[in-house]
Amino acid sequence: MPPQTSAADLLSAELLAKLERMELVSRKIFRGRMKGERRSRRKGQSVEFADFRNYVPGDDLRFIDWNTYARLDRLFLKMFMEEEDLHFYALIDTSPSMDFGEPTKFHYARQLAAALGFIGLVRGDRVKVLPIGESAGRAAPVLRGRHQLWRMLEYLSGLEPGETFTLADAAKSFCLRNSGKGILVLITDLMDKSGYEAALRYLLAQDFDIYLIHLLSAEEYEPEVQGDLRLIDCEDGDVTEVTVTAPLLKRYKQTLHAFIEAARDFCSRRGILYFPARNDLPVERLISGYLRERGLVR
Amino acid sequence: MPLDLVNMLSWWQWLILAAVPPAILALYFLKLKRRPLEVPSTYLWRRSIEDLHVNTIWQRLRRNLLLFLQLLLLLLIMLAVLRPGVKGSKLVGNRFVFLIDNSASMQATDLGESRLEAAKEAARNTIERMQPGDVAMVVSFSDVAEVEREFTGNRGQLVESVEQIAPSARATSLVEAIKLASGLANPGRSANDDTDVQVAEPKPATLYIFSDGKFADPAAPLGNLEPVYQPIGADAASNVGIAVLNVRRNESRPDQLQAFARLENYSQAEADVALELWLDDDMIDAARYQIPPGESQGFQQDLGPLQSGSLRLVIAKAKFLHEDGSVSDDQLAVDNQAWTVIRKNRPANLLLVTPGCEAIRFALTTEAARQLANVTIEPPEVLNKGGDYAQKAASGAYDLIIYDRCRPREMPQANTFFVGALPPVSFDLPPDREGGESKKVELWRARPEVAGPRIIDVDAAHPLTGWLDLDDVLIAKARPLEVPAGGAVLIDSHLGPLMAIAPRGGLEDLVLAFSFVEEETGDDGAVRRFAATNWPIRTSFPVFMLNLLNYFGGGQAGLDTLSVQPGRQVSLQSPAPGEPLQVLAPSGRKVEVPVGDLGRANFGETDELGVYEVRSRGAAVDFFSVNLFDPTESNIAVRQQIQLGHVPVEGRAAGWESARKEFWKAILLAGFGILLLEWWVYHRRVYI
Predict the structure, then answer these.
(1) Number of separate domains in chain A
(2) Cβ separation of A228 and B37 shorter than 8 Å?
(3) Domain that holds residue A64
(4) Do the bridges between strand B647-650 and strand B3-4 make them parallel or antiparallel, or are there none, so unpaired?
(5) Which of B38, B48, B688 is closest, CB to CB, to A255?
(6) Tens-place pLDDT, residues A246-297
(7) Chain A contact set for B31 (CB, 8 A)
C-alpha cells in the first residue's frame, strides 16, 4: 500500500503550466448540460454570429435583426454559435493488480487522471474523475472550473487500490449511473481473467467517446524473475508454478505482445482509441507527446 | 557375445548404493519447493504455459530432465561397479608371431575379396585383441619368409606392417617361416644353427598362421612356439588352372612345332572353360572344354614351322556348374595364363679332335645332330700348334671338345669328352716329409689294361646315360678308370668303371675308358684299323651321342624355352662374358645382372608371371617365362588341419582364449559425460 499521497505529488507546477495550454478533444459532438467554453454545432447564445433564418412566430424577438428588416422589410432572425461544456470522465482501475510497479501503476493512473482532469477544468468542461468499481465511484464529485482543481486532487489522493472486481461488473455499474455522452478515459491494466471485452462493450453501448490507456508496469513488460517460482495472483490468490527459463521468458513476451495486440485490435475495430502506456514513462511526456499525437488532447 | 557381470560389492554396500536413488528423489522434491512471489496477475503467465500443458507427461519429463540425468548417472555407476564384460577377447600368451601367407593361392577370391585381404583382416582383428604389454612380430611367407615387423608392442605399427604385405605369385613353404619365427621368438637361439647354445631363457610365443594351408607340412621343430592355425578361404572353391604348357617338335615332321597344354579342374563342379592361344599379339586358336570335377584336359595345337615367338595360353572364361544348379566363376586368376617362348636354335659349337674315327664322325653328322651342333673336326696335330685352336679353347668358344685318343697340353675352357685318353688334370701333393719334394699327381688315372670287360651297371638317372641299353655291347679291351673325388661313374664293368664324369670349375669332363677304334701297325708297316667295340653299331650309340650333344651343347639350345616357377633362380648364359645382362620383366622393370667369367649369370627376381627378355648390349639374346604350374597352389580348397613337426594343428576361426573384456572404464567415462551434460543443462536451463 503506498503512503498517503499528497495532492502536490500528483501534479507538479511545471506540468500544470504545460497543461493549461491544452484542451481535451472529442471526436463526437455532445450536447452539454450547461453553457461551456466549447463551440457547439447548435446555434444558440453567444457573441459569435452564425447565420440568419426567417422569423417564425414565437421566436424570441430579441434576436430579430432590425437592420436587415429596415433594408429588406422582412424579418430575419440572427443566429449565434452556442458555446457548450464537455463531459469528461476519467476512470481509474483500482484493482489490487494496479498496486505494482515503481511508481505503482495506480499512482501513475492517478497522475494521468489528474492531468487530464485539470485540462478539462481549465477549459470549463464537466470533469468527473472516479475509480472504477462497485462502490468507489459513488462519492465521486462532479467538477467544473479551474478552482475545483484542489478538490479533484484531494479526491484522487484519497483513493486507494485494493477492491477486487471484474471489469465487466464495474463498467456495468458505471454505465447505470452515468449518462453516455462525453469523453471517457479508462486507465487500466486490463488484467482481468474473465476478460475485458464485456466491460468495453458496456461502455461502447453508452456512446461514450472512449480512450483506453492500457497501463502496464515495466516489470510486466520485462519480468526480472528467475528460478523455480510459485506465482501468486494478488487479486484472486491463484497460484501458478513456473520455472523461469530463457525460453519461458521468450514465450511470456510473445504472450504479452499477443495480449496487447488483441486489445489494440479489439479497440480499433470498435472506435476506441487505444494507448499502451508503461509506468516508467513520465506522465508529462505521455500527455504532451503521445496523447497529443494521437489526438486526445491538443 | 553374451554380457556377463561380476559383483564387486557385498549386500550391505549394495544397500547403501540402493539408498541413493530415493535420496536423490527426495532431494529433488525438496528442491521443488518453489519460491513464492506475488505478481499483479498470473494471467499472462498462465497463458504462457497453457499450451505447454497440453502434453503434460512429456512436459513433466522435460521438467525433470535433471532428475533423470542424475538417476542415469547413478545407474551407470552401479553398472560400472558390476564390471560388465564379454567373453573371449584376450589372446593366449603375451608374445605372438603372426605368419601371413602371401603365396599365389592367397590371391583366390572365394571370400569375395582376396584371401590375403581376409588374412590381413583376421590378423588385424587378432592384433586388436592384444593386451597392453603384449608384443608381436609380423612375418609374411610364401616360399621365402620375410619379417615385416620385429617384435613390438605398438599395435599401430603392427597393423601398418600387416597392411603392407603384398600378394605374390610364389609357391608356399612354411619351413623357412617357422625357422625364422622360432629363431626370432627365442633370443639366443639361432635361426640357422640348431646346435647353437641357448644363452637366454627361451620365451614361449604363440604362432598365429593365417594361411589356406596349401603347403607341404614342415617337419621343422616348433620349439616353444604354440601354433594356432587360422584357415583362410572356403572349403569348396572353384578353380581351373593351366598345369603345363610347352612346345615340342612334331615327332613325324621335325620342322613342325606343336603346343601342348594341360588344364586341371580343381573344383567339385564341372567347369566350362573357354581357352585362347595367342602367338605374340595374334589369337591363333580358341577352344572350349567341359572338364568334369577333379579331372584334367589336354590341349594340343599345331603351330607350323615357327622359328620364334611368344605363346600365351589364356583361360578367357571359366564357369562352374554346381550340382545344385548354381554357377560360379573362376576364383584364382594367377593360374589362368601361361607363357612360353619359342627360341631360335643356337647350335652348340663342337670340336672333334681325332686321328680318324668313323663312328663318332657318323654320329655327329646325322640330321638330328646337325640341328644341335656345329661340328668342327681337327686332327690331333692342332693341339701342339697353338694358334686358332688354342685361342678358341681358352676363350670358351666351344661348348664341347671331344678328344679322341689324344690329350691337350692344357685343359680348355670347355666341357670335354675324352675317348680312350685321360684329361691332363694334375695337382701338387704336399711332400711326405719335411724338405722332401712335392709330387705332381694326376687327377684322372687308369688301371692297367684289361680285356673284355662286361658292362654291369649304367647310371640311368644321369642325362648322359639315360635310356641307354648297353647289355649287347662288347668291349675288346679297356683301361678301367680311377674316378677322382666328386666324380660319378656312369658305366661300370665287372673290371672297373668304364665311363665317368667329374666337374672342373663350372665345366665337366667326361672320360671313356676305351676307344672305338684301335690302330695297329703291322709287320709290313701298314696301319690297320679295327673296331675295338661293337657299341657304334648298337642302337644305344646314337642315343648316347644325342644325349651328349643335348647335355653339353644343346641344353640351352633346345627348342622349348626355359620355364621356371615364380621366385626360382634362372641360369642365364651371356654371349659376351664379362658384360652384364639386362633382364626386362613383364611389367617393364629392368634388372641389371652381373655376369661371371664363364658368361654365366643367375637371375632370381622372378616374382612376376610372364615372359622375361634377356638383353645383352641392347639386343635380345634370350627369353624365358615364369609360370605358376603348381598344383598345390592351384588346388585352392582350404586345408582345415595342418601338421607342424608331427603335431597336428586344427584350424580354428578364433585364436584367442576366453577372457573377459571389461567395459567399466567406458561406462565411467560416459557417466562423467552425463555429469557434464547435467551441469550444462542446469546452468543453461535449456528446457521450459
Answers:
(1) 2
(2) no
(3) 37-84
(4) unpaired
(5) B48
(6) 778 888 899 999 999 999 999 999 888 898 888 888 888 888 877 777 777 7
(7) 228
